[in-house]
Amino acid sequence: MRSWKSTSGIVFLILLFSLLADNFNYFFIRAIYPNSFIIGNSWYIVNYVITAFLFKEILKKHSRLIIGLLGLFILGTIVSFIFFYEFTESNVFIRLFSNASFIAFSLLVYFELLKSPSLQLTKLPLFWVVTSLFIYNSLLLLQGIFNNYLIFDLKISTFNLIPIIKLIGNIVKNFILFYALALIDKGYPDSLTTNKS
To answer: Residue 162: which pLDDT band, with cuts at 50, 70 and 90?
Structure first.
């Protein structure tokens, strides 16, 4: 890694914290407290801050918008935990706001990529990073909408499909992030402006 301030360092932190949250969540439920929302809510807050800084690095022209949404997210998180949610229950605000924000940021990156048709997307690590975040947050947004706003449960007999979809999405996201880090390690740029041939 070149620097902890570079986008590759931020991607590494996202991958590391994702893996730590998944493993700690499992341990927490089994050994400490039978509720995963404490870890889940904490993860959403940490993930939003780190991933917002990643998108701020990638989308420098939109950094004010991203910082503004980060401030709105922090304010909304504080208000939602004070007035609407306990930390031991699913905070729908932070989940849906973060998923929708990351989908929008990903689309902004894709629009930037469309302006440079000469780029080899498959060799551009940030394309893979953004794609992994787009896929994962799209799945989580759909899960949040189904679980919280639609009276609809995707079930096959008594087997709930939603957590399985989330788990598969998380695994795919982490593998794609790892692949992007491997591309960066091979010398491909961790920015949208240059591309190794």
So the answer is: low
